[in-house]
Amino acid sequence: MRQANNRAGEIFRMAAQSLHRSQTPIGNYLRRLKARLGLAGAITATARKIATIFYTLVRRQVEFDDSLWQASEAERQQRLQRKLTSQARRLGYQLVPIGASTGAANA
User: Fold this and answer.
1) Given a cut of 70, is residue 105 above it in pLDDT?
2) Contact criterion met (CB below 8 Å) for 73 and 28
3) pLDDT for 31-40, tens place per residue?
4) pLDDT digit string (tens) for 49-99?
5) Contact predicate 61/22, CB 8 Å
6) For the chain, does the N or the C end have fewer beta carbons within 10 angstroms?
7) What CA–CA distance (Å, rounded) separates 36 from 79?
8) CB burial of residue 92 (10 Å; 0-12, 13-18, 19+)
9) Element (H or E) spanning 83, and its range?
10) pLDDT band, very low/low/confident/very high, at 2 (cuts 50, 70, 90)
């Protein structure tokens, strides 16, 4: 973990570091960034996001609203699905949802 003299920054980085196995939206955010930026960059970026959320909550004196995370996560899932469908079509395949039943499979 990065060494600095700012105690608040250190605390936020420690909080971000603890999210590696967390199955929460911010844990997913950390893992996505980790794949793209590497461990140190992902921890720093996630710590900044946590600090931004914390500052907003304290400044506006409101409770955390998880619905915003869920909405952005749903949008991300839709983008990923469109991207995969487009890639499959370009390669000559067709994606079929697992729950969709075909006539040959049920016979």
Assistant:
1) no
2) yes
3) 999 999 999 9
4) 999 999 989 998 888 777 777 888 888 889 989 999 999 999 999 988 888
5) no
6) C
7) 18
8) exposed
9) helix 67-90
10) low
43: exposed, middle or buried (Cβ count in 10 Å: 0-12, 13-18, 19+): buried
Q: Is residue 74 within 8 Å of residue 54, measured between CB atoms? A: no
From CA 10, how far away is CA 29, in angstroms rounded?
Answer: 19
Q: Is the pLDDT of residue 100 over 80?
A: no
> What sign results for the dihedral spanned by CA atoms 66, 67, 68, 73?
positive
What's the rounded Cα separation, in Å, for the pair 56 and 11?
17
Distance of CA 24 to the CA centre of its chain: 8
